[in-house]
Amino acid sequence: MRPASFTATSLILYLFLFLLRRGTLTTGEITPLRRGFYAGVCPEAEQIVRETIRRAMTKEARSGASVMRLQFHDCFVNGCDGSLLLDDTPTMIGEKLALSNINSLRSFEVIDEVKEALEKACPGVVSCADIIIMAARDAVVLSGGPNWEVKLGRKDSLSASQEASDNIMPSPRSNATFLINLFHKFNLSITDLVALSGSHSIGMGRCFSIVFRLYNQSGTGRPDPHMDPRFRFKLNRLCPVSGDGNITGRLDATPAKFDNRYFKDLRRQRGFLNSDQTLFSDDARTMAVVKRYSVDQKAFFADFVEGMVKLGDLQIDQPGEIRRNCRIVNDAPREETREAVS
């Protein structure tokens, strides 16, 4: 992760985390999120979202995991406000080029399809921030995971910040201690951390994210000792030291199915990312939760749902709107609009 400099943006981010840790930035005090928010104004909204995600996953199963990740990368940066979806403009570098997002996050076009369908049915009603929350839930459900009612009513931000994302989003190199401390800043527990890490039950990861584990863990010039030798041999072939960093490998043995196999793989030292394997190998507190989920899928599902709801509650007090196009603010100049749409 890039070191944080003490700039104005960094100060704002620090104050956000400080207030959030004190419990002053909660959903109830900012926007009254609630279940069934669109029932009276756009009753078909949730059905439209799910059917669009279903079609996208039929075309490409991996898009489900990609869509689900958007909630994490949006909500951790200044709350769940759809800022992640904004394209860069001549006056703003957005979050898509942040260290944890560039060449990594994908399926933005799926959100575009959802928004287009919703604008036809209910113009100017459903926010892009809420679309992310609904789409993430639906991606889990359509992959065989749990279902839950989402709280809705968010507004879309008027800006985005690459620096804010760089200063908060964890690296694939992160260890358990760093992750525990990060989640604590958001009032998320160790159980929340492990359960939400289970989002890697579906999807793929890039070789770029693991070559250090294979060849130079912690600067030792040697592979990560917490890796099954046969698994490491497979990854060596997939990700040679000078190979294409954008080649992808499975995050667990069942990457299209949302289940507890991810935790079983961690116990076998077959975690793809360092930030995953560390949950079993480096801290007794997270290890205990991994063990529990590896034998109790129902417990994992229940805690995952609770963690996703908590994650969706993250907000800060800022101006907002209902964007007509998730990539641009409503009052964007014409030249910026053409650039963003193209």
TrEMBL record:
Ca(2+) 2 binds at D252, T254, D259. Its main location: secreted. It catalyses: 2 a phenolic donor + H2O2 = 2 a phenolic radical donor + 2 H2O. It comes from the Eukaryota. Residues 1-26 form the signal peptide. Its EC number is 1.11.1.7. The active site is at H73 (proton acceptor). Keywords: Calcium, Disulfide bond, Glycoprotein, Heme, Hydrogen peroxide, Iron, Metal-binding, Oxidoreductase, Peroxidase, Pyrrolidone carboxylic acid, Secreted, Signal. Belongs to the peroxidase family. Classical plant (class III) peroxidase subfamily. This is Peroxidase. It comes from Dendrobium nobile (Orchid).
